[in-house]
Design goal:
Strand content of chain A: 25-35%
CATH class of chain B: Alpha Beta
Number of helices of chain B: 9
Bound molecules: adenosine-5'-triphosphate, magnesium ion
Number of domains of chain B: 1
Number of strands of chain A: 23
Distance between the termini of chain A: 14 Å
Structural class of chain A: alpha/beta
Strand order of the largest sheet of chain B: 6-7-8-3-9-10
CATH superfamily of chain B: P-loop containing nucleotide triphosphate hydrolases
Helix content of chain A: 25-40%
Shape of chain B: globular
Order of helices and strands of chain B: EEEHEEHEHHHEHEHEEHH
Strand content of chain B: 25-35%
CATH architecture of chain B: 3-Layer(aba) Sandwich
Shape of chain A: globular
Helix content of chain B: 25-40%
Number of helices of chain A: 12
Largest interface: A-B, 24 and 33 residues
Radius of gyration of chain A: 22 Å
Number of domains of chain A: 1
Radius of gyration of chain B: 18 Å
Structural class of chain B: alpha/beta
CATH topology of chain B: Rossmann fold
Oligomer: heterodimer
Chain lengths: 487, 256
């Protein structure tokens, strides 16, 4: 690669974090540390039913044991200091009120914040087909399109509300896909989860709009522990998008969410994520978000389908493996991922496809892009059980390196216990070719334009899986990531 | 008036002791079309690359003036904006980059440089359809990723399609005729002839006399060992077709 191109590609990390600002809304914060008192405080603050407190406490004891046992997660290709669990505050809420019935009640300050993030609620309201459930810190602040959803019998509310209003559904499913014993972060989340979304789509109903939630982390040293549960009854369809961006902060911020999806017979759930949290200081990597998330879907019924699509551009450390348990016969699992790391960012992400039912099918398309000194790993597991006749998997993992000092790694694990399984894995690593850049230049495109086109092209297969409304936003986000001083 | 003046051009490979062009002289007037022929490895594509601004080549001596200005001062994208177009001998694939996006960016960056307004999406798409029709390019190709999975001939046609979209002032065609079927050759030739309106200049690099029957050149140059060994009118192509290049080599040797 020519020197000017190399310089440019190396230098582009200098782009400042575009969404780095901080809203000064007073927040009430629980005392630091993970204690039984804190768990009780959270449940009390949220006025939760007794059964939920009991559930939290069970998880708390489990989490406490694991922390006291000194558990660490050292198998991932990540290099960072584990969060100090007893120095984290596990709950914060905007001071004035806990929730609002309409957008008019939301303080202007919050609305402005969303506007600066490019998510003006007023505009969102007008955007037909998009319902917005905005989570500021840990408490829901606004929900729109409720009426339309109500007509169809779709329940879309904060997890906290749902626990109170639909305890029978929440109790039936909560923790069945990601048990609190699953991993340390899932255990912590189960003990102290703040809020999140709950979606229930009744039998035969196609959810009339994209459901979308924006999460923000906004308090110094506050852990953010959302919990999301989506249940699609037989023949139901729902598409859900979660998009995130966070203000610039000094301390490391732990984000350990749990997402559980359950798809019954003939149901389909499409879950998309755009993650753009503060990645830390570009020169030192200090202060970025730790994004350690457990996402899993259960294709419970025959012929059900769960599809994960993610665009991960933010956070200092990202570790997540949205997975699908293919229990029903003929069920389908998909994972489409773009992970972009630059500066000192590290990502270890991928998926797990667990084939249990017969004729189950999974597709994995992963695109990793790294620049500067960033590290990007794909880690994926395809597991075929003894009775999963005719299971099929196709995996494709492509990595693109934008400089000489970044890293890309691929760790595919395959475990097949049924001889009829067909598993295909392809992996490539490429650099942006000088030939490609020159071809673009010859057509009048400058360094930045050319690079944007090529990288966007590289991700196209994944981006096209995003709901239409968000594909444009996603492209823009990638462009912003690639912008910088042309050397 | 001279659109392009190449004088005593010596070119090597950057950071290496390799010399490819050894004193090329060539002047192309506005409105003219010159063909460049010559054996494999004689330096034709290198000349084209240097004109387009490829960085791996280093100009050791000589000058190139384009429209009276020093072309070597310009970055590759600035040359494109100034109206220099190269139809590549080996067009590059851009996986996932849609033809429409790519061309729209290209057309608009060239228009902006010329002080023209950006085309609206409707105008652009209409222009795309028109030009694709004119060149007999399958409309489906314009819906795919740039050159990805295109056949050899499709890639060549796509280069001419881009040429028609960008309306350059200096068009360099590097063996665009190689690998084209007879129909494609004719439509490419038609495309070039339509653009031959007196306001542009063309350098057509080719190994075959056949395309020159459709696109009649004002002049033919023979490149050998990095120099223009001989120039002549359109009849030179026939002589070459019959006798090959050896006689020129002998003539040059005898003259030396
Ligand atoms: N980057 C490079 N490094 C080393 N040698 C090079 C480089 N580029 C070109 N050459 C050499 O320079 C010579 C001229 O190459 P060029 O591609 O210009 O030939 P050409 O006349 O276009 O040939 P053809 O008719 O086969 O297309 C060849 O010997 C080629 O190997
Ligand atoms: Mg050549």
């Amino acid at each position: 690669m020519s020197t000017s191109e190399t310089q440019y590609l190396e230098g582009k990390a200098s782009e400042d974090y575009k969404h780095g600002f901080y809203t000064d809304i007073d927040a009430e914060t629980a005392p630091d540390g993970l204690t039984e008192d804190v768990v009780r405080y959270i449940a009390h603050r949220k006025d939760e039913p007794e059964w939920l407190l009991e559930w939290r406490l069970k998880a708390f004891r489990h989490a406490r044991d694991r922390i006291d046992g000194g558990e660490t997660i050292d198998w991932a290709h990540l290099d960072y200091e584990a969060p100090k669990f007893d120095e984290i505050s596990y709950f914060s809420a905007p001071k004035e009120t806990a929730s609002y019935d309409s957008i008019d009640e939301v303080p202007d300050e919050i609305l402005e914040t969303f506007e600066r993030l490019g998510i003006p609620l007023e505009e969102q309201k007008a955007l037909t087909g998009v319902a917005v459930d905005a989570v500021m810190d840990s408490v829901s602040v606004a929900t729109t399109f409720k009426e339309k959803l109500k007509e169809k019998g779709v329940i879309f509310k904060s997890f906290g509300e749902a626990a109170k209003e639909h305890p029978e559904i929440v109790r039936e499913y909560m923790g069945t896909v990601v048990p609190y014993t699953d991993n340390l972060y899932a255990a912590i989340n189960s003990a102290v989860f703040s809020d999140g979304s709950f979606v229930y789509v009744p039998e035969g109903v196609t959810c009339p709009m994209e459901l979308s939630t924006y999460f923000r982390i906004n308090e110094a040293g506050t852990g953010q522990f959302e919990r999301t549960l989506i249940v699609a009854e037989p023949g139901a369809y729902v598409s859900y998008l979660e998009g995130c961006t966070a203000p610039m902060r000094k301390e490391n911020q732990l984000h350990a969410a749990v997402v559980e999806l359950v798809a019954h017979e003939d149901a389909e759930i499409k879950y998309s994520t755009i993650q753009n949290w503060y990645p830390g200081d570009p020169d030192t990597g200090e202060g970025g978000v730790y994004n350690l998330v457990t996402k899993r879907g259960l294709c419970k019924g025959d012929n059900s389908k769960i599809s994960w699509t993610q665009l991960e551009t933010g956070s200092a450390v990202t570790q997540k493996y949205p997975s699908v348990i293919l229990a029903g016969d003929d069920s389908v699992g998909e994972f489409y991922s773009v992970a972009f790391t630059k500066g000192h960012q590290q990502a270890d992400t991928g998926t797990k496809m667990q084939h249990i039912g017969k004729n189950t099918k999974s597709t994995i398309i992963s695109k990793g892009i790294s620049a500067d000194v960033a590290d990007n790993s794909y880690r994926g597991q395809v597991k075929v059980s003894k009775n999963a006749d005719n299971a099929r998997n196709f995996s494709q993992c492509d990595s693109m390196l934008l400089g000489p000092d970044c890293g890309a790694h691929t760790y595919p694990y395959i475990e097949s216990n049924n001889p009829s399984a067909q598993i295909e894995h392809e992996a490539t690593t490429s650099k942006v070719g000088e030939d490609q850049m020159f071809y673009c230049h010859q057509r009048g495109l400058g360094e930045e334009e050319a690079l944007k086109l090529i990288v966007n092209g590289f991700c196209q297969e994944v981006l096209q899986e995003l709901p239409m409304e968000f594909a444009v936003e996603a492209k823009e986000l990638l462009d912003i990531e690639l912008e910088g001083s042309v050397g | 008036m001279a659109l392009l003046e190449i004088e005593n051009l010596h070119v090597g490979v950057e950071d290496e002791d390799i010399r490819i062009l050894n004193g090329v002289d060539l002047t192309l007037d506005t409105g003219a079309l010159h063909a460049i022929m010559g054996p494999n490895g004689s330096g034709k594509s290198t000349l084209a690359s240097v004109l387009a601004g490829r960085e791996e080549y280093e100009v050791l001596e000589g000058s190139i003036r384009y429209d009276g200005e020093d072309l070597l001062e310009l970055e590759p994208e600035e040359r494109a904006e100034a109206g220099v177009f190269l139809a590549f001998q080996y067009p590059v694939e851009l996986p996932g980059v849609s033809m429409t996006n790519f061309l729209k960016e290209a057309v608009n960056s060239v228009r902006e440089a010329r002080g023209q307004e950006e085309l609206s999406s409707t105008e652009f798409l209409q222009q795309m359809r028109e030009r694709a029709d004119m060149l007999g390019l399958d409309a489906d190709l314009t819906k795919r990723s740039v050159n990805e999975g295109f056949s050899g001939g499709e890639k060549k046609r796509n280069e001419i399609f881009q040429l028609a979209m960008l309306e350059p002032r200096l068009a360099i065609l590097d063996e665009t005729d190689s690998g084209l079927d007879i129909d494609a050759l004719q439509s490419v030739a038609n495309g070039v002839n339509k653009l031959r309106d007196g306001s542009r200049g063309f350098l057509v690099i080719t190994h075959y006399e056949r395309i020159l029957q459709y696109i009649v050149p004002d002049r033919i140059h023979v490149m050998m060992d990095g120099q223009i060994a001989r120039s002549g009118d359109k009849d030179l192509a026939e002589t070459l077709e019959e006798h090959g290049y050896e006689w020129i080599r002998e003539e040059v040797a005898a003259a030396a």
